[in-house]
Amino acid sequence: MYEFGIKTPTSIDDVKTALGEAEDGQFLAGGQTLIPVLKQRLAMPSDLISLSRVGELSGIKVSGDGISIKAMTTHAAVAADDDVKSAIPALARLAGGIGDPHVRNRGTIGGSIANNDPAADYPAAVLGLGATVITTEREIDADNFFTGMFDTSLKEGELITEIAFPIPEVAAYIKFPNPATRYALVGVMVAKNGNTVRVAVTGAGPCVFRVPEMEQALTASFSPDSIKDGMVADDDLNNDIHASGYYRAHLIGVLARRAVAEANG
Amino acid sequence: MSTFVARNGIGESQRRLEDFRFLTGHGQYIDDINLENQTYAMVLRSPEAHADIKSIDVSEAQALDGVLLIVTGEDWKAAGYDPIPTKSGVRKFKDGSDLKEPPHHPIAIDRVRYVGQPVALVVAESLDICRDALELIDVDYDSLPAVSHQSAAIKDGAPQIWDIAPNNICLDFELGDEEAQKKAFEAADHVITLELVNNRVTAAPIEPRGALADYDAATGKYTLWNSSQNIHANRDTMADTVLKIGKDNLHHIAPDVGGGFGAKNGVYQEPILILHATKQLGRPVKWINDRAESFLSDTHGRDQVSKVQLALDNDGTFRGLRTETVGNLGAFCGTVGPFTPTGGSSRTQGGPFRFDGIYYTAIAPFTNTCPLDPYRGAGRPEGSYQMDRIIDYAAAKLGMDPIELRRKNLIPESALPMKSPMGLDIDCGNFPEVFERTLQLSDREGYAKRKEATETKGLKRGFGVCMYLECTGGGPKEEATVKFRDDGKVDLSVGSSSTGMGHETVFAQLLAGHLGLPIEDISFHQADTDATSLGGGHGGSRGLEVGGSAVTQTSREIIEVGKKIAAHRFDVDADRVAFEDGRFHVPDTNHTMTIRDAIDAQNDPENLPDDLEPGCMNVSSVFERGVISIPNGGHACEVEVDADTGSIKVDGYWVVDDFGTIVNKMLADGQVMGGIAQGIGQALLENIVYDESGQLVTGSLMDYALPRADDIPNMVIGYYEDAPTQKNLLGVKGAGEAGCVGAPPAVVNAVCDALKEFGVHHIDMPLTPERVWRAIQDAKSNN
Fold first, then answer.
1. CB–CB of B768 and A242 under 8 A?
2. What is the pLDDT of residue B1?
3. Is 0.90 surpassed by the pTM of this model?
4. From its phi and psi, is residue B24 left (phi > 0), alpha (psi between -120 and 50) or beta?
5. Taking CB atoms and an 8 Å limit, are B645 and A254 in contact across chains?
6. In B46-107, where do the E strands start and end?
7. What is the distance, to the nearest Å, from the Cα of residue A58 to the centroid of all Cα atoms in its chain?
8. Nearest to A241 among B689, B701, B774 (CB)
9. Is omega for the bond preceding B159 within 30 degrees of 0, making it cis?
10. DSSP characters over B105-119
């Protein structure tokens, strides 16, 4: 690590002040990505602005047809939350399958989606369930939030405060873990809400993405048989030592079919 | 508490004495040891696979506050040290010429030849200052073409790594009888050929390599605490050959070592560099590799490509076997690197099966990759993989039953003892019985039901077996030293070092069992060149075979001395004294004396006969193994394969090992389980990948897949104990490596069995989901 200062504000207002005062400040949520990056000397912020003592950034709230999860809520808390488990079991299971107990007890939903790792699980949930990302400045639709590899539409200094998930009729997330990292080699979230079906894929490309062809076919008939081979072209998918784009394209189909079957119970 | 061990310590599952220390965080690993005035060292490693070093500018780094010393190849050249020699047991080409041994200096001189090779050593007041300094060293490289794969390295026109080695060939090799093999091939009904890859892996011990060096200017002596598996031989090489400081001036200690698996056997560069640095500075120097550096710089294992041919008759009788291997050596000769693909892989060719003729050849080329050295099994896993894969492949090609093929060709008990076609002295064992017991243990009757249950889930189930035969190795000598202290404790030192396998327990168990002393009284000291005059290190599954025999021999000598003391007290001839359960007694009399009485008596000349000196029960004895032993056994494995994704679950594992006498079943089980876990890792997950330009692609645990607990099945382990060997004092055959000798072929055979309906008969390791899925697709499109 290079040297850095650390600030521990306790309110969102203080967070803004702390960031304004820092020469090159960086938010620290659960630190599950940022700390290893710092240890490898791949980043050199002047100050870390820790969010872990900001009480108003933590918690889970059910309201009518939605669940709102504050940004600093840990994966373990989401996985164990009874409201999440009964309203969107797929989301609880997704959170419970991230990393290992250490990661789940430190890592946060806000940190995960702000980082937008191409193989992270949460982006598939946010995009697949059609959530809204609420920040200190505005509300951003999931469709407009994830903009590229490790990139989002967040502006400099903009802080995610909560993520609002609509409660779907049915949803399921199936992840095919990378054998080395247990991140998603491919992960597919399928959600059905009325006449709307959303299919979001993580791990397979440079950034989480939806599959319109599958969504249309599933809107017509929400059945595994609606998923056909070749609905995702492999041209833009990741090719690495763990899997080719060709294989990932195949897995998307297999996992989507399994997700639909699971959603249908 | 006083725990007494029966039957001379043999057969008791004594619980591990070291575990309390380990589990409560009181182990003494290198980073737990800190000396006053200690400094810290880090290594600048080459980012280039092959390049000339045009210049190294250390001026900015040198100027940094807290930087104490920077060492580069220029300094090394000026110091005039000799290179690190290879100790490969095979040193001659087939034509009798010497192997090509390039100079292996601990730090690159003028040219780098692999990514990760040390280019500079920085010593500073703290690790952070070291890191800052590393960033300030400016090395100007002039890149050269590189080659990372052994098959590419031996082609005409490939980049040449060493002038002395045309076509990069360090060594070639042959063993066996080519005439007999060719005749056998001509006579046979079929010759089945399979080309296979034994994938490159890294040991990834949980404690990375590290060392702490301290020079004492007053005495001119050095102390080196080193996370090493082989302190005596490596002391000699470092002190006598490389630094020329004299081995008596280097006190080499391996404290608790957190895993080695062969990767800590060899002489490494960094400990030599910090020995140089501690003298220059007059201060202790500590160096610890981090995990990323470990991937770059720990010697890798395996990495052989082979063409295997099996000749057999229509009735399944094996006739001949021919294997041609090209084994990657990396950029230099490792400490025993050139031996692995030559001698190491050749000796067990043919396994426990009967052949008319076997012939093995190997070529061992240099490449622009990290040097290779032993990894658990060091050649025998490769041999066993070749043998047990070609059997299943031939069975699939010829429509035979792989179990029946093995049954038909196993060497019968009546044929033993015998000399194998590759020269191994197979003294005892019962291969057909071990094989049948393996099948019984694996519940073949219940298989159909398990297969049905698997298929209900939409998956494929497969069963695979392996009948391995391997051999022990490593240094033939070991010393065990026992000293009875005045406080009643017993110091036991053995030169062989533990990297976690339980020497502290089993050696104490043997000594306590022989002498009838409570095991708690024994204080074990491992791997210290001041404690024992010699030591063979740890490798080749030799710990119990050689070290355990040394403890036994020393125990017996102590008892003989004790008998003389008892005879003196009772005024009888020593040959009338018997010893049993910790007591000397004279049969048909009421004369008895405990071992403790004898120990207490040993320091007073009054108590001793004329031919004994005070302290006579403090015995040090060297055991020398004449001939290596032959562990063997059967592995059986069941897998579930998801044909839609290619993912594999190992769903059952059974093994019956013939390790001769089992001294401590719990420790043996631990060795078997650990070996199988590593074997499953190699078969399904692990792969060190270099790209064609020599860059390491799998440089972290994010890309190198180690097995996790849920990748490993429950294992049912049995032992065949009816064939103890006479080659050592305990009848043991070596348990340390057998697990990963047997596991890879058993797992791959099971997967191929599961996929035979698709026409898939071979997939190269590691069997990643994509490889498996593609194999199914390819087979489908070919049918």
1. yes
2. 65
3. yes
4. alpha
5. yes
6. 51-57, 67-72
7. 17
8. B689
9. no
10. -SS--SEE-STT-EE
